[in-house]
Amino acid sequence: MRTVIPVALATVVASFITACGHDTPTEVDDRTAQFAKGGGGSEEGYVIEVLVAGGGQDADINRSGTIVGNAGDGGFAWRAGVVEPIAPPNGASSARLQGMNDDELIAGYAIYPVSEGVARQSATLWTPGAQGFTALDLGAQLNAGSEANGVNAASAVTGKHGNNIDNPWRAFVWLPTGEVRDLEPLPGAVNGSIGNSIDDLGYVAGVSSGHDGNNSDHAVIWLPGGTTPVDLGPGNTRDIVTDAAGARVYVVGWTFQTVRNKTVQTATRWTVNAGDGGIVETRLLGPGVALGVNPSGDVVGTADSKAVLWTAGGETVRLSCLAKAASCGATAINGDGVIVGWSGGSHVTGGGTVRWVPVGGSN
What we know:
The protein is mainly beta.
């Protein structure tokens, strides 16, 4: 699973919504149009709490409720109220945690000191142990410049490697055997491909980047063991997960739709047949970005600088930020419905990594 976002959520929303016309959108459905007018939704049923003050705008949560995120130059693991710092690997100046599986293996990357004028970014896999987390540098098996974005139950890792200058990004799958499989972009993608998340069946969600004069990305998936992408259309993906029965795969991200002659970045959930990779449904959730999904098909993300839950049953739930905070965002949700993300603060209440717990639900 991988449910993080690499830059400020508000910046992402603003930059894509204002980039009107760089893709050829389709008409959005009535439900999305109503959302754009502010109709529907609620804020009831969830309690928000701060986990790590000053935590970054990304976090992931697994089945047992363990939460990982970033703060300062390193990361942390939160378990039942206890925070374990995760320092950068030896020799690295900083590290960023990107995604975690149910066994608490963590995918991410580390930054090493400048060499020949360029700092080295290296994909890294952290493994938990009695003495804390141990970092494995995957970068030696990849092209210069790499990051790991997601890891599944089989410890398979996806991410990107290259430098996007003279060596365009290439999505990859790394296996514990040491095998590395490159994942191709769509034809005409001048910036290459990126793997954002990998599910337990081996499906990878990602992006084919740099189409139509270098101004457009396409959301894509790669089937287990395959290297050729399936095009989901203009947009991007963020997370992918298999349902409990192993029959369907849920992919979330965003597409671009037209509402009253304006291009709107629209949170989207794709449902894929796990058997053959066929697209069963493309559901437009509403303006915003979808960043995380659980095995039930519930989706979380952000819209209008606020955290949002789109339930599998079709309800839109606006999640409260911390008191007097101007913005917040949800990045991941587990099978118990516990949601993690971030919230800004105020001069009274500091912001950081937060979680929303269903009233009467798991603590």
